[in-house]
Amino acid sequence: MTTTSAAADGNLFIVAAPSGAGKSSLIRALLERHNDGSMQVSVSCTTRAPRPGEIDGEHYHFLDVATFQRKIEANEFYEWAKVFDNYYGTSRKVIEDTLKRGIDVFLDIDWQGARQVREAYPQAQSIFIMPPSLAVLEQRLRSRGQDSDDVIRGRMAKAQAEMSHYHEFDYLLVNDDFNETLTNFEHIVLARRHRMALQQSRHATKLKDLLANDG
Ligand SMILES: Nc1nc2c(ncn2[C@@H]2O[C@H](COP(=O)(O)OP(=O)(O)O)[C@@H](O)[C@H]2O)c(=O)[nH]1
Ligand SMILES: Nc1ncnc2c1ncn2[C@@H]1O[C@H](COP(=O)(O)OP(=O)(O)O)[C@@H](O)[C@H]1O
Fold first, then answer.
1. Residue owning the nearest CA to atom 16 of ligand 1
2. What SMART domains is this protein classified in (predicted)?
């Protein structure tokens, strides 16, 4: 008789940071290092206007406010929040389907969304990215060259409020040297994967022993 154990679900990782601290760049670089289809970043829905070069369906699903609100009513979001006066949300179906296929999913979301995900899915691992200083944060927002002075001022004004939630997260990374932060980020992700794989194999061995002793 052969025993089959159900394939393990993928791992869910929440990544939050004040705007400009480097979370999108870190997730993108990690996915480039592991481009075997075992990891995906969730593409959020937003009502904010696309930045130059942003592609609908790739960077975000850009929606109008009425469509976003209809999706809230229809319970289509795993989590959603209002950030910088715009709505942002994660599609429930995509996340659930992707995890079921055994693929790890990264959510680039704010602290309000992180709270909702932790409640819905307590096994999610959460990582907070800090900039080395507020001056460096502002410099990064400016050098990204995608936001107006007004938008940058708004984001800097909200940075400390976002950072005040760092203690709600499982891990804290200070993104000073990019490659060093990327390596630490990768260690967190791989350690989680190994632990879950070990648990799964222990479970499978135990099941085999039980069945072998049966009768
Ligand atoms: N709750 C929630 N926050 C999101 C989502 N997508 C993006 N955000 C957050 O919204 C904030 C602004 O994102 P964005 O406009 O792309 O600016 P950026 O972080 O400066 O690149 C960031 O803190 C994101 O993490 C989402 O689906 N849900
Ligand atoms: N460790 C780092 N050192 C220098 N620049 C960085 C570092 N991490 C990210 N950046 C740059 O800072 C800017 C903001 O990064 P981004 O990933 O867009 O931030 P976020 O997604 O958190 O808003 C980008 O231009 C990015 O290339």
1. 19
2. GuKc
Cα 88 to the center of its chain, rounded Å: 13
Question: Is residue 21 marked as binding?
Answer: yes
- Tokens 């994967």 -> residue: 193
- Look at residues 157, 120, 135, 67 and name the one whose alpha carbon lies nearest to residue 109: 120
**What rounded mean pLDDT belongs to the chain?**
92
Q: In the structure encoding, which two tokens stand for residue 57, read together?
A: 């369906």
Rounded Cα distance, 175 and 1, in Å: 52
Q: Which atom of ligand 1 is nearest to the CA of 83?
A: 10
ipTM score over 0.85, yes or no:
yes
Residues with CB under 6 A from ligand 1: 19-20, 24, 44, 48, 79, 81, 83, 88-90, 108-110, 112-113
CATH class for the region spanning 12-213: alpha beta
